Amino acid sequence: MNGVEQLAPIVGLVLACAALAVSRATMYRRLRPVTSSAQPRPASPRALSPAEKGHVLDVLRSPRFVDQSPVEVVYTLLDEGEYLCSVRGMYRILAANAEVRERRNQLRHPSYAKPELLATAPNQVWSWDITALRGPGKSNHFFLYVVLDIFSRKTVGWLLAMKQNSALAKRLIRETCRREGIDPAQLTIHSDRGTQMKSQTLAQLYANLDITASFSRPQVSNDNPYSEAQFKTMKYCAEFPDHFDSFNDARSFCRRFFDWYNEAHRHSGLRYLTPNQVHSGDSTSIVSARQRVLDAAHERHPERFVRSPPRALPPPSAVYINPPEEGEVAARGTPTTSEVAEVDTQPELQVVTAGTDEQLGLQTEPTPRAAASIAVLRDHPVGARGRPGRPRPGEADGPTAGLERSAGEGAEHSRPEGFIMQSGLQSTQPISIREVLH
Question: In which domain, by residue range, is 13 found?
């Protein structure tokens, strides 16, 4: 509104409103506010006089009635042959003097502040959550932990386990921070208020790594939109089954899905770049290449672009969780290039082993073979829609399938029982998915 008022004397009110997308009717109402012509409401002839109201208030404040309700006062005086006013009238007098409140001690919900987070580069704000994947039996589920960078939408870490456990979440976040090269006071991690997210185990990890913790408001799913949107992308995939026949099936699907999501998924929120392209800083060169193609097309056929030459749009330079109101954004200003923190590219993959177990399976940089093997998910041994492939003969099946063992049954393990953290890129199968996702 202030911008319209400043621009109107120069170009006129109509053009100023059109340029700033402000309704002219709204602007006219602001310039010529309607003054109310209503007269003050006259006092009712049935109302108590100020002297009578003062007497009622004195009676209610008297030591005899100070701890009694107006109902008790009215009927006590009635039994004594006196009537001052109605019960509702006493409540009005008390309310006018701010003497009505709930006297009992009641539990009141605390007021939670709306989280407002801003990311202008990768590895500034992560969001993580846990979702359940249906297993082979009734009430049997596998639990998928996913850590997402909200700026690039890249899945920087994921874990599939048989249970929800704060120790597993701690290990996932710690290993992901180590591999991404997170410095102290660099990262904010946002999540909902689940038991694992609010545990003392994670609170100690955040304190040790100097990570800022952010939490959603209770029962407000919009406070964690990026994780929720990714889970919907996964579960609305055409190849997502009704249930998984074994732990191995679920792990294999997650491995291929996250490879596809990071490497091949053209994300609408990133101007149809892939998360890895934005996370690695290649988006500028890719957008420039797109612009050169569009410029060449415009030179060949300028008549086909009626309004203006085509333009390749870059991904957003700032990503919010709960963006501030329009006035607050104008006061803060747009983040400048100097304010964007420089983030190192991903370090080389470091193999972390426990005994003779396989490499820990947090999301890692793709291998050349994996990047070149984008195919259709139905070509993978996963069967028809809703029917994952059965395990081959000799493979374990059931809720405990997929739990890897060290050499020898008595070998000691450093991982908790039921723990699986598998690399999203060490699959022996092609990474792929149907290109029906948005």
Answer: 2-31
H/E run at residue 14: helix 13-19
Which residue, among 172, 174, 178, has the nearest Cα to 157 in the 3D structure?
A: 172
Our CA angle for 157, 433, 314, nearest 5°, is 70
Tell which residue, 279, 251, 284, 252, has the closest CA to residue 265: 279
Residue 423, pLDDT score: 36
Confidence (pTM): 0.57
CB 175 within 8 A of CB 352: yes
Residue 284 belongs to some domain of the structure: no
Is residue 39 included in any domain, yes or no?
no
> Is residue 121 helix, strand or coil?
coil
Q: Are residues 19 and 155 in the same domain?
A: no
Backbone phi, psi, residue 181, to 5°: 70, 45
Same domain, 27 and 54: no
- Report yes or no on 40 lying in a domain: no
Q: Is residue 109 part of a domain?
A: no
148 C-beta neighbours (distance < 10 Å), count: 27
3-state secondary structure of 242: coil
Describe the crossing of helices 200-209 and 166-180 by its angle, rounded to 10 degrees.
Answer: 20
Pairing assessment for the beta strands 155-161 and 117-119 based on DSSP bridges: unpaired
Residue stretches of the chain with pLDDT short of 50: 334-438
Question: Do 71 and 128 lie in a common domain?
Answer: no
For residues 159 and 176, the answer to whether their CB atoms sit within 8 Å is no
Give the count of alpha carbons within 13 A of 261, CB side only.
27
Q: Which two structure tokens, joined as six digits, stand for 47?
A: 């109302």
